[in-house]
Specification:
D-Maltodextrin-Binding Protein, domain 2; binds beta-D-galactopyranose; 5-stranded mixed beta sheet; 417 residues; alpha/beta
């Protein structure tokens, strides 16, 4: 970065972290009075979580104004392109949301983010996080983000009253779902509601997981599973069958309205992560009465995980305040304020379980259960970097039109780079 603002201010961060090192921001300079945090938590079910975290941050950091730079849009698809422009223009926020895992790889390679190992040591975080999560966020021995939660991708949401009226119980395989879909369609309901392109990818990863099993699914991303082999091709064809039972011709604008169709009675099921729990509660619904959930078909006892985390960009205008924001994200009080509102379980293992009720009580127990198989989400950044995900997006857009599984598989392999 040479003499860019990013490079100069990065040196300033070093001086703050290691007093007496010289260079960068003068020690006498006034402390940061503001922190600009970039996320995509602007919609119902997401902003409540962010607000709870910000309120806890304010308790510990009187005098630092929170500048909310959230850009609306599920899974950050819109936010990410806004952020990319800002980072390319050397105009970073003080901290930005990113998924733990491969999604961060490009930003690390481009030198956009600071290594936070020193903060991890100072806060004794390493032994407070599950080993698998630490592994997912460690790149060449360095750690560039602070995870605030664990979400589960592989869930199937339903309205218990609607299912009772249809005399159905949630399917345990995708083949069961296809059988049920005929009954549901005959009664005039959409079997499975769907939203924008990322929700189709979300469905795809969970059909693959349900059909292939945890091990084979995990190896799709590490090279051990042959995308063009018969098992994957069969699962991809099944995905087209499932998609044909959705309202993809008139998709919902985002994940919340796709869930609305389920609770309001237009659709029987929706495959979505557990941020749905937070959203459905904002609609005043009570778990098991107004809405129910099971693992998506074929994925019982598997946790297809993702983790929201925050970074310290190089050249952050307020690195001192950004560091305090990260401390908040990694703290017990921050995680226990945020996660009960967000529909996620804490990334830390030492938080107060009594704060997690309803759906989340079961999620906390299942996440902690040594018998639970953990795999990583494609759509939400864990298993593939941004370039591969972009290639998969393009291939999927073609696949949902032409239904050509072999062509899709070839494109996915070619896109790995
Ligand atoms: C995920 C994110 C979740 C939730 C969801 C829907 O990518 O990790 O926190 O916000 O998108 O927007």
């Amino acid at each position: 970065m040479g003499v860019s603002r990013r490079g100069l201010l990065a040196a300033g961060l070093g001086a703050l972290a290691l007093p007496g090192c010289g260079g960068g921001k003068a020690a006498t300079e006034a402390p940061d009075r503001k922190v600009e945090v970039f996320s995509w938590w602007a919609g119902p079910g997401e902003k409540e979580g962010l607000e709870a975290l910000v309120a806890d941050f304010a308790k510990h950091n009187a005098g630092i104004a929170f500048d909310n730079a959230a850009v609306a849009g599920g899974a950050g698809t819109i936010a990410r392109s806004v952020l990319t422009t800002r980072l390319q223009n050397d105009d970073p926020p003080d901290s930005y949301q990113i998924h733990a895992g491969r999604e961060l790889a490009d930003d690390i390679r481009r030198g956009y983010v600071e290594d936070l190992r020193e903060l991890y040591t100072e806060q004794s975080w390493l032994d407070k996080l599950p080993a698998g999560l630490v592994q997912a966020i460690t790149v060449d021995g360095a750690i560039y983000c602070v995870p605030v939660n664990i979400h589960r991708s592989n869930l199937l949401w339903y309205n218990p009253k609607i299912l009772a009226g249809l005399d159905l119980t949630p399917p345990s395989t995708w083949a069961d779902f296809l059988t049920q879909a005929d009954t549901i369609a005959r009664r005039g309901l959409t079997p499975l509601s769907i939203g924008p392109a990322w929700t189709q990818k979300h469905l795809l990863e969970n059909v693959l997981l349900g059909q292939l099993g945890a091990q084979t699914y995990a190896e799709l991303w590490t090279g051990g599973t042959d995308w063009e082999g018969p098992a994957v091709l069969a699962a991809l064809r099944l995905f087209t069958e499932v998609l044909a039972r959705t309202d993809a011709a008139t998709p919902a604008g985002d994940w919340q309205p796709a869930l609305d169709k389920v609770v309001d009675g237009g659709a029987a099921y929706n495959c979505m992560g557990d941020w749905a729990d937070a959203y459905l509660r904002t609609r005043g619904l009570v778990f098991t009465e107004g809405y129910g959930v099971v693992a998506s078909p074929g994925t019982d006892r598997v946790y297809n995980f993702l983790s929201d985390s925050f970074t310290l960009p190089k050249g952050a205008p307020h690195p001192g305040a950004a560091r305090k924001w990260l401390v908040e994200c990694g703290s017990v009080s921050g995680q226990d304020a945020f996660n009960p509102q967000k529909g996620s379980v804490p990334a830390r293992t030492d938080t107060d379980r009594s704060k997690y009720t309803g759906y989340l009580a079961a999620a906390v127990a299942e996440w902690a259960d040594a018998g639970t198989r953990v795999v990583g989400s494609l759509t939400h950044g864990v298993v593939a970097d941004a370039a591969w995900n972009t290639a998969i997006d393009a291939a999927l857009a073609a696949f949902v039109q032409d239904g050509d599984a072999a062509r899709f598989a070839r494109a996915v392999v070619a896109g790995r780079g």
